[in-house]
Amino acid sequence: MSDDFNMSMRKFLKQVGVTSQQEIEKAARDSGKSGPFQAKVVLTVDGLDLEHVVTGTINGTPE
Asked: What are the angstrom distances between the C-alpha of 49 and each of 43, 44, 45, 62?
């Protein structure tokens, strides 16, 4: 893979990670609930035959 491809993919994934964390924290705080929360991310890429699903559990209480 080219350096340009790798850098742009890493930049995209960093943006996904940071903004997703912010949104999850906000939603958890606003709900007033404690975990565990079941989470799922579905990644698709236009132009590629790709659907990648990641699931997991988020534990704890938002601060």
From this structure: 11, 8, 7, 36
Q: Is 28 in a helix, a strand, or coil?
A: helix
Confidence (pTM): 0.84
Nearest Cα residue to 26 out of 41, 42, 37: 37
pLDDT in tens, 14-58: 999 999 999 999 999 999 998 999 999 999 999 999 999 999 999
Distances (CA, A) of 35 to 24, 30, 46: 11, 13, 33
60 vs 33: CA distance, rounded Å: 9
What do you get for the CA distance between the two ends of the chain, in Å?
Answer: 40
